[in-house]
Design a protein that fits this description.
The chain is 64% helix and 3% strand. By secondary structure, it is mostly helical.
Amino acid sequence: MSNILNNENFLFTLGIILSFVVLRVFFLRLYVFILLPGTILHEMAHYMFGLLFGGKPFFPKPSSFFPKKENDQIILGSVVCQNITWLNAIPIGLAPLSLFYLAKFFYYNSLLSNSFFVFYITIILILSAIPSKKDIEIALYSSLGIFFWTLVFIVFFKITVSDILSLKRYMECC
């Protein structure tokens, strides 16, 4: 843990994330403007996964990337899918999580290492990868879908019962 706290990049990144939190709380309009590229990527992730998994998405209108206020909540963007089913709800709802991989790829493969631009884009991608409350509601649409995608995850990552039990033992001891 002390090695992480001594890492300049980690502390700088943490500082930027905290700055974004302060922006969101106290300067919402500026936050929305700065995060606009990430909002577009977030919604495009939903759109692409909707196409890939048969969700029949409508292509987002440019106005859907700008914030709207509904029921005392600010909606940063939206994509509408016509065909949400038990099979595609989780991939479509959690599609923005794929932006974490894009952030990691961009950060580690950038030719402009240690520049403000690299950190800005990386932080925008990380913040935009976080699913919204509505995204989570869509992902939890069906118990059958949750069961199916959990099995896919277990098989894909070759998770065994002993892995799960050792994780349980680890959680109990710490």
